[in-house]
Amino acid sequence: MAVTMAEISKLRKLTGAGMMDCKNALTETNGDIEAAKEIIRKKGQAVAAKREDREASEGCVLAAAKGDFAAIVALKCETDFVAKNESFVELTRNILNAALDAKAANMDAVKALEINGTPVANLIVDEIGKTGEKMELGYYEAITAPYTTAYVHPGNKLATIVGLNLPDTDYQVAHDVAMQAAAMSPLAVRREDVPADVVAKELEIAKEKARQEGKKEEMLDKIAQGRLNKFYQEVCLLEQAFVKEPKENIQQYLHSHNKDLTVVAFKRVTLNEE
């Protein structure tokens, strides 16, 4: 049977698939919309299976905060062209919003979500069918704190979320900290949070460097400790020099607004950072 343009347009609106794909699916199913949707989904599954060994190194990273909860979602694909596609960005945003509404704790929880009755995994397969590229959920991070904020760097390749300890925190102050975390790539909030193996490695590097500089063996520990303190100032968010005012660190900046204000958590997700 001949299919009408109205039927093709309806299926295209429901699936986002190309006009010819919709026409062919409707022709094959004699105009049965539901059966045609299944054909298009199976096409996505076939493409996904065929491209399983491909590398999804591009993608879209989005973040948002809602009250005491903030999250970052990274949906990955193969090319920057698809990463910038409006449909792909919208899918990433829809997954993020669903995760926020559900306060999803981890990646498994996100994968178990449904959006308008359709599982997230199926929506990704549908998008694969539209573009012909491998796609996958690459990262998911979330935090809960009395006050949360999010920052997405232009281009949708880098995003941060930050949690602070006071619910009445000024938006701009929190936003400044989120931008700091994006710009300066901290490893931890404070020095106590830096992994022990990282600390041990930095101490060893500092000792070896001092040794090569000809420092006396009995002075190596003291020198290494001094260099470790400098390392902490570079990688701990609260000790980093504030990018907008380098004469003060982030904790000093926060205390200048409220002596009790501090950061309790942050997450940073990026793609293709040089």
Secondary-structure map:
Elements: H1 5-15, H2 19-28, H3 33-50, E1 58-66, E2 69-77, H4 80-83, H5 86-102, H6 107-111, E3 114-115, E4 118-119, H7 120-131, E5 136-144, E6 147-152, E7 158-164, H8 171-184, H9 196-212, H10 220-235, E8 241-242, E9 245-249, H11 250-257, E10 263-270
Antiparallel strand pairs: 1-2, 2-5, 3-4, 6-7, 7-10, 8-9
Helix pairs in contact: 1-2, 1-3, 2-3, 3-7, 5-7, 9-10
Query: Low-confidence parts, pLDDT < 50 over ≥5 residues?
Result: none
Order of helices and strands: HHHEEHHHEEHEEEHHHEEHE
Biggest β-sheet, characterized? 3 strands, antiparallel
Judged by helices, strands and strand pairing, the structural class is alpha+beta
Number of helices: 11
Radius of gyration: 24 Å
Task: State which percent range the strand residues make up.
Answer: 15-25%
Query: How would you write the strand order of the largest sheet?
Result: 1-2-5
Q: What share of the residues lie within helices?
A: 40-55%
CA-CA gap between termini = 55 Å
Number of strands: 10
Give the overall average pLDDT.
Answer: 89
> How would you describe the shape?
elongated
Could you explain how this protein is built, in words?
The protein has 274 residues and is α+β, with helices and mostly antiparallel strands. The chain has 11 helices and 10 strands. The protein has helices spanning 5-15, 19-28, 33-50, 80-83, 86-102, 107-111, 120-131, 171-184, 196-212, 220-235, 250-257, and strands at 58-66, 69-77, 114-115, 118-119, 136-144, 147-152, 158-164, 241-242, 245-249, 263-270. A 3-stranded antiparallel sheet has the order 1-2-5. Strands 6-7-10 form a 3-stranded antiparallel sheet. The model has no long low-confidence stretch (mean pLDDT 89).
